[in-house]
Amino acid sequence: MTGYAWLVPLPVVVPLLGAALTLLLANRPGLQRAVSVVVLAVGVVVAVVLLVEAYRHGPVVVRIGGWPPPVGIVLVADQLAALMLVVSSAVTLCVLLYSIGQGRGDIGESAPVTIYHPTYLVLTAGVTNAFLAGDLFNLFVGFEILLAASFVLITLGGTESRIRTGSTYVVVSILSSMIFLVGVGLVYAATGTLNMAQLAGRLDALPDGVRLTLQLILLLAFGIKAAVFPLSAWLPDSYPTAPAPVTAVFAGLLTKVGVYAIIRTETLLFPGGDVNGLLMVVAGLTMVVGILGAVAQSDMKRLFSFTLVSHIGYMIFGVALSSVAGLSGAIFYVVHHITIQTTLFLVAGLVEARAGSTDLRRLGGLARVAPLLGVLFFVPAMNLAGVPPFSGFLGKLGLLQAGVGAGGVLPWALVAAGTATSLLTLYAASRVWSIAFWRAPRLVAAAPPSRLPTLMVGATTALVALGLVLTVTADPLFGVTTDAATDLRARTPYVRAVLPGGAP
């Protein structure tokens, strides 16, 4: 334990305290907004400190209440978890500022004003708890916290479409949680512990059939949450109907928590590549099916939802390679995709606010009437498509090089699928640009405002800038992700930090 261990619980505790305070300030919306912004800003600072500490000295561990594992709850901020904290904290802060800029704290015409900020902070606490969890049950608790908050956020406003799609989201989420809970119970029955550092040793001693069964059950649960094919059909119908800030934070973060859980369990609990072939097939199908769905869409939000599914495939590809290069590329791509996908959904919200619709058949001429909006779309769209020299290109290049280095039929097939997906993503992004921004103006669904709210534009601009920062700092960032991948493959730094006296 280092002198910074006391910081580890703060990304979970501070948002929960902030949620309680904002609920008490229900009749003071100005103070609600101020508290929320301060809480998330504190989260960014704490996350950066933890990343620096984890990079310099190894995982930062805190045992809640001083109880040793497996009795007590352990929170662990290694390089992977701390890096996820940094990007998620920055994204949630920008999205909150965007939602404040809309001028509707509830983001819905009929939702109570009091619930948005507390629920948003609870969602943040759930995400950070999932990243820091040192045992499977606490990881389950983190998922349930964020899912409970997401059930409220996705139905804000109470419109028919939001209730309908929200119901689908709820059913799918409960199903994945039930599968996860069954997996947790079976793991405990087989090993007598849920602490992941202990499981790293005890699972290796199980019979191969039992170990594989546990691995597949957890992968199924996390695959639903990460929206990998064929478990992704729920996402394109659920996300687009939610308010723009809610859709943005869901698209940027919630599926990546599932990807994070896959990375953590596949490296720490189930090393050895028993299911790498299956993961490669799933990754390839996720890429191809997702992007084919995207090119067929005529609505920006649905198009971005399908690209979200598609690009999850790149991350699973990196995990399936099970090499330092593959894992490093996967982690880099997670960081990139959280930022860029969130940005694009915020841009879609700006387009809707400016033109009254995100339906491409009703849009046109936006580059002429709102040139800044055109820039805010063009930069992250090209980044997502992997156009050089953006971070999307660098992340895909790292993954494809890792695939070539691995050799074999499946890795080469994934390299081909990844290249085709990137080209089709460029086609989809170019199609949106040429129709919505470049062609002659069309009638829109509602009279556009004279100008967009400054805070909405500023928050989106900040995320566009963050995407460019990822490009400029790609070399040191790849250094961090490579170190994180090396530690994940070794497992020893994590296990020794949590169990310095050895696994009982």
Automatic annotation (TrEMBL):
Keyword annotations of the record: Cell membrane, Membrane, Transmembrane, Transmembrane helix
GO biological process: ATP synthesis coupled electron transport
Membrane topology: Multi-pass membrane protein
Organism superkingdom: Bacteria
Domain NADH:quinone oxidoreductase/Mrp antiporter transmembrane: 133-424
InterPro entries: CPA3_Na-H_Antiporter_D, NADH_UbQ_OxRdtase, ND/Mrp_TM
Pfam families with a match to the protein in the record: Proton_antipo_M
Molecular functions (GO terms): NADH dehydrogenase (ubiquinone) activity
Transmembrane segment boundaries: 6-27, 34-52, 72-101, 113-133, 139-157, 169-190, 210-235, 242-263, 275-296, 303-324, 330-351, 372-390, 410-433, 454-474
GO cellular component term of the entry, any: plasma membrane
Principal subcellular localisation of the protein: membrane
Subcellular localization: Cell membrane; Membrane
Family to which the UniProt record says this protein belongs: Belongs to the CPA3 antiporters (TC 2.A.63) subunit D family.
Protein name: Na+/H+ antiporter subunit D
Organism: Micromonospora carbonacea
